Amino acid sequence: MRLVKRGKVKDIYEANDEFLIFHFTDRISAFDVIMNETIPFKGKVLCDFALFWFSKLNIENHFVKKIDVDKIMVKRLSMIPIECIVRGYIYGSLYLRYLEKDYLNIPKELLYYIKNKQFKVSSKLPFIVFDPSTKSEEHDYPISENQALSNNLIKRDEFKQIKDLSLNLYNKMNEITKISNFILADVKFEFGKDLKTGNILLADSIGPDECRLWNIDNYQEGNLQDSYDKQILRDWLNKKGFTKIIKDFAKEGKKPNPPHLPNDLINKISNRYIEVYEKVTKMDFKKS
C-alpha cells in the first residue's frame, strides 16, 4: 500500500482507485506538536469509536469495513476543505475570540449575544452554533461562509448542506452522550463528495480527538472543565510552560521539540480514552 498522507495521529494509505485505508496510530499531539511518546491502545480506541459513531448516526458515510484492530477501509472522496465545528458551549478558541473581541471571526448569529452579554468560560451558548474553520495540518483558522465562497472552497448550497448536517449530527450525538452523563461541548465533522454520485458523505472519523466531552456531575460554569480527551496532556504541557515555548518558536516559523512524557501521564491518558469509550458505547474495550 502506498502512503498517501501522514497526519498528526492518523496515516492514510491508498488501497486502490476507489478505496483508502485509515490507520489510527497511537501517536498523540497537542498544540499542533506531535509528542515523541505514544499512548497505548489509543489507535484502537479511535478506530472502535469511529465504527460506533458511523453505525449510530444514521447518515451516509465513507466507511466500508474494518480490516484490523486499528485500521478501516473507506471510500475515496473528494474532500471538502472545511472543518465543520459545532459548539454548544463557549470554550477553547471561541472563548479566546470572545475575550479578544475578535468579532470578525465570530459566527454572525452569535454577534448580538457576544457583544451584549457577559459570558464566562464554559457557559452554555443560547443555541448551538456552526463555527467552521480552515483545514490544515499546521493550524486551523475560523472561516465565514462568505470567505469559504469567495475562496472557491465550496458552493453556497453545499455550505448550507454541511451546516445543516453538522447541526443535526451534533444533536444526535448530544442525545447519545447525555445518556452516558456527558455534556457534548463541541465536535468537529468532515465531509467529502462521492466520486461517482457527487453526494456529500460524512467522512474522516469521530472520537475523543474530534469532540470535547465533560462529565455532567462535575460541570461548573466559569471554570475550566475536565475533558475526556487529550486535555490531560494539554494541562500538563501548560504547567510545564510549553505553550509559551511554542509561541516563542512560532515567531520564527518553527516548532519546538516536545518534552518527555512521564509514564504515569501516558497511562492516565490511555485510561481516559478507554474510559470514555466504554461509558459512551456501553461496551467493554478489548485490548486485543
Topology:
Elements: E1 2-6, E2 10-14, E3 19-24, E4 29-30, E5 33-34, H1 42-56, E6 63-68, E7 71-75, E8 77-79, E9 82-89, H2 92-99, H3 111-116, E10 124-130, E11 133-134, H4 145-150, H5 156-179, E12 182-194, E13 200-203, E14 211-215, H6 231-239, H7 242-250, H8 263-281
Antiparallel strand pairs: 1-2, 2-3, 3-7, 4-5, 6-7, 8-12, 9-10, 9-11, 9-12, 12-13, 12-14
Helix pairs in contact: 1-8
Describe this structure in words.
It is a single chain. The protein is α+β, with helices and mostly antiparallel strands and 288 residues long. It has a domain at 79-218: ATP-grasp fold, B domain (D-amino Acid Aminotransferase, Chain A, domain 1). 33% of the residues lie in helices and 25% in strands. The chain has eight helices and 14 strands. Helix 1 (42-56) runs parallel beside helix 8. The chain is globular and about 50 Å long. The two termini are 24 Å apart.
Percent range of helical residues:
25-40%
Low-confidence stretches: none
Rg of Cα set: 19 Å
Major beta-sheet overview: 7 strands, antiparallel
Helix and strand composition category: alpha+beta
CATH architecture of the domain at 79-218: 2-Layer Sandwich
Measured by DSSP, the beta-strand proportion falls in: 25-35%
CATH class of the domain at 79-218: Alpha Beta
Number of helices: 8
Write down the overall geometry.
globular
CATH H-level name of the domain at 79-218... which superfamily?
A: ATP-grasp fold, B domain
Strand elements, count: 14
How are helices and strands ordered from N to C?
EEEEEHEEEEHHEEHHEEEHHH
The CATH topology of the domain at 79-218 turns out to be: D-amino Acid Aminotransferase, Chain A, domain 1
End-to-end CA span: 24 Å
Task: Provide the residue-averaged pLDDT.
Answer: 94
